[in-house]
Amino acid sequence: MSRILIIGAGGVATVVAHKVATHPDVFTEVMIASRTQAKCDKIAEDVFKRTGQKFKTARVDADNVPALTQLLKEYQPVLVINVALPYQDLHIMDACLAAGVNYMDTANYEPLEEAKYEYGWQWAYHDRFKEAGLTAILGCGFDPGVTSIYTAHAAKHHFDEIHYLDIVDCNAGDHGKAFATNFNPEINIREITQRGKYWENGGWHETDPLSVHKALNYPRIGPKESYLMYHEELESLVKHYPTIKRARFWMTFGQEYLTHLRVIQNIGMASIEPVMYEGREIVPIQFLKAVLPNPGDLGENYKGFTSIGCRIRGIKDGKERTYYIFNNCSHEVAYRETGTQGVSYTTGVPATIGAMMFCKGLWKQPGVFNVEQFDPDPFMAELNKGGLPWEELFDIDLEL
Ligand code: NDP
């Protein structure tokens, strides 16, 4: 019996709204609040048409802590599911502390003026959440999120020590557009254009952006060129699994995508530095977002699959073992179920399951936690029921 508040009304929020509506026994009352209330109303309308569930909506600027605190005090949810943008994380955590509400998100805090990814800012809230008797669950999407829980599952059931971890993220889908990003373009382009970084032998090593790559075979998809990038879950996983000697993250990109990205960067459109245009300041990447396709609208013609997983090498009972755990998700199936494409779906389903873990009291502990710090078993069981079933391969060639 839980009342929850979803903040944000983009692609991921749409999936969360549709999915929580299928569990009225757990999520008894739901409100969607975002900057543009019309978007919340549209989601609530679609959910009502599909499920008959009635959700409330509200307009809120989550960067306005007093206004958000007031909304939380009035509505009194047990949990906020933050699926707005990473810039809002700390403001929403502040409001949750002020109003006595538990917190969950899918992406770590990022300052608007600097593309910098680290958990330090949010981990610094641990004592305040602990003292308030509140839980904050960080990074409960697919990556971070399911990839971290896959690692926890591997550590619990298949390894005594994990030594090498490679997270592999393939989108083999085709949306038919010359260039579009699968989630918020600003966040996505900031992430991809930063320097690569991986963990090895107790330290971080940097690479030029997208300079390290190789073809990897993805199950039932085939070979796809995969690029080494930094991704936030590497930071928490090497902290929580100190036996890891090397941890890397790989993502696939097509040549067409990379060519567009290079042009966008070369002409300065990926910049986060404000420029003056016709007497007012604009941020090039924010303007670019306004002209690119809306990721939430890509679903209709999206064909193909995503394939995201963890390739792990380590020790079990004194012997070396290799292990690959992954999910393949169909963009078309995601669209039929929620009206969004696979990337929003693979993020929104885990966020819903994380919220369910909290509301059922299975992942409830005062403080700030990454998802791999909780018991993976009930979450893994729900993934199979919730539309993202996982598959495991043992003692195979990991290619890495
Ligand atoms: P969208 O850009 O589609 O949606 C973001 C929503 O947040 C919009 O509705 C936007 O409002 C709202 N918003 C932005 N600023 C504010 C604010 N100050 N106050 C209130 N609402 C605000 O993004 P996505 O749905 O694609 O992504 C949502 C989140 O999911 C992001 O943080 C992203 O990084 C994360 N993500 C995580 C993944 C994972 O696997 N862990 C994968 C993909 C995404 P408006 O409509 O008015 O612009």
Account of the 3D structure:
The protein is an alpha/beta fold and 400 residues long. Helices cover 36% and strands 28% of the residues. It is built from 14 helices and 18 strands. The chain has helices at residues 11-20, 37-51, 65-75, 89-99, 120-123, 126-132, 146-157, 185-192, 233-240, 255-266, 284-291, 331-338, 342-359, 376-386; strands at residues 2-7, 27-34, 56-59, 79-82, 102-105, 135-138, 161-171, 196-200, 203-207, 213-218, 222-229, 246-252, 275-277, 280-282, 305-316, 319-330, 367-370, 391-394. Strands 7, 8, 9, 10, 11, 12, 15, 16 and 18 form a nine-stranded mixed β-sheet that branches. Bound molecules: NADPH dihydro-nicotinamide-adenine-dinucleotide phosphate. Residues 7-13, 34-36, 39, 60-63, 83-86, 88, 106-107, 141-145, 183-184, 187, 295-296, 343-344, 347 line the site of NADPH dihydro-nicotinamide-adenine-dinucleotide phosphate. NADPH dihydro-nicotinamide-adenine-dinucleotide phosphate binds next to helix 1 and helix 13.
List low-pLDDT spans. Answer: none
Oligomer: single chain
Please state the average pLDDT score.
96
Whole-number radius of gyration?
A: 20 Å
Secondary structure category: alpha/beta
Question: Helical percent range?
Answer: 25-40%
* Percent of sequence in beta strands: 25-35%
- Tally of DSSP β-strands: 18
Globally, the shape reads: globular
